[in-house]
Amino acid sequence: MSDYVVKLDGVSKIYTLKQKDKSKKKTYFYALKDISFEVKKGDTVGILGTNGSGKSTLSLLLSGISEYDEGTMDIRGEQALISINTGLNMQLTGEENINVKGALLGLSKKKIQEIKDKVIDFAELGDFLYQPVKKYSSGMKSRLGFSISLALDPDIIIVDEALSVGDKGFAQKCLNHMAKVRDEQNKTIFFISHSLGQVRNFCTTGMWIEGGRLKEFGEINEVCDHYAEYVDGLNALDEKTKKAALDEKFKERILDKAPSRTFWDMLIR
User: Fold this and answer.
1) SS3 sequence, 115-165?
2) Considering Cα of 124, then 130, then 136, then 138, what sign does the dihedral take?
3) What's phi and psi for 231, nearest 5 deg?
4) What is the largest CA-CA distance in the chain?
5) Whole-angstrom distance, CA of residue 122 vs CA of residue 246
6) What string of DSSP letters covers 97-110?
7) Per-residue confidence (pLDDT) for residue 267, from 0 to 100
8) Angle at which helices 220-235 and 239-251 pack, to 10 degrees?
9) For 37, phi and psi rounded to 5 degrees?
10) Of all residues in the chain, what percent are helix, strand and coil, respectively (each to 5)?
11) SS3 category, 244
C-alpha cells in the first residue's frame, strides 16, 4: 500500500466567468487543469506561482472546501485551511468564533475550553478575543484563524498566505510551531507564500503552479530557483509585452465549449 497522504490524479477545477453583458453566452475557465502529484506523510510542500495561477484554488480543493470537476483526489487525514478570514464570522467575537467552530465539529464543552485555552495562549490577542472580529486588523484575524486551526490539531495543515500579514515575530512563532508538529508528530503541511525565503527555509518539496497547470514538482531549492528565474524574466519585460504574454496564458485556460455532463452533475450535488 502506498504511503501517500495526498494524491491527485488529473484533477481540474472549472469556473464560470462573469459576463458584463448578460446576453452573451457563458464562458468557462480552467482554474486548475490536469493536476497530478503525491505527497507523503510528514512532508512540507511549498506551493509557488504568480497571482492568478491557481494556488488558492488548490488550497480550497485540498481542504475540502471546494469540489474538483475532473480527475480523482484521495486525502487520508483531517485537513485544516489557514488563511486570512477563512472560517471566521466577522460579526462574532474571537471567543464566539472558537465556540461555534467547536460546536460545528461536535466537540464537547470541555474540549472546546481546551482549544480556547490554547488559542488564548498562542494568539496573544488579549482583550481583543472578546471583541467582534470585524474590528480586527488583518494581522489579528490571521492570528486568530491560525491559532484556532493549530489548536484543532489536524493531520494536514494548509497555509494560504496567512503569514503575509501582521508582525514578523508572530509569523516566525507560527513557522516554529509548524516545524515542531511536523518533526514530532509527522504532520503534513502545504505552505503557500510569495516569500521565497520562507519557502526555502521551511519546506522540503516545491510545487510550482502556473497558468492553472503543474509546471514543476520536486526538491525545494531547485523548484525555487526555476520559479525565481521565471519571475525575473517576466518582470524584465516591458509592460506591453508582459501584458500580451499574460493575456495569452489566460486565453489558453478558456474552454472552447461547455463542460461535460459530469461537471454539471457535480454542481447539482
Assistant:
1) HHHHHHHHHCCHHHHHCEHHHCCHHHHHHHHHHHHHHCCCCEEEEECCCCC
2) positive
3) -65, -40
4) 60
5) 41
6) HHHHHHHHTT--HH
7) 47
8) 120
9) -170, 165
10) 45, 25, 30
11) helix
| Order of strands across the sheet that contains 156-160 | 79-83, 156-160, 188-192, 44-48, 205-210, 213-219
**Cβ-based neighbours of 128, under 8 Å, separated by 6 or more:** 94, 135, 136, 140
Check if the beta carbon of residue 3 is closer than 8 Å to that of residue 41: yes
> Tell me, what amino acid is at 127?
D
Neighbours of 24 (CB within 10 A): 8
Cell 500580451 belongs to which residue?
Answer: 244
Whole-model pTM: value is 0.85
**What is the grid cell recorded at 44?**
512540507
- Confirm if 83 and 21 have CB atoms less than 8 A apart: no
Divide the 269 residues of the chain into consecutive groups of 10 and give the mean pLDDT of each group. Answer: 86 85 77 96 95 92 91 92 75 89 83 88 87 87 83 88 69 85 91 89 95 96 96 92 89 78 46
Taking each helix axis from N to C terminus, what angle separates 109-123 and 138-151, rounded to the nearest 10 degrees? 140
Instruction: With beta carbons less than 8 A apart as the criterion, state whether 62 and 75 touch.
Output: yes
Predicted local distance difference test score (pLDDT) of residue 217 = 97
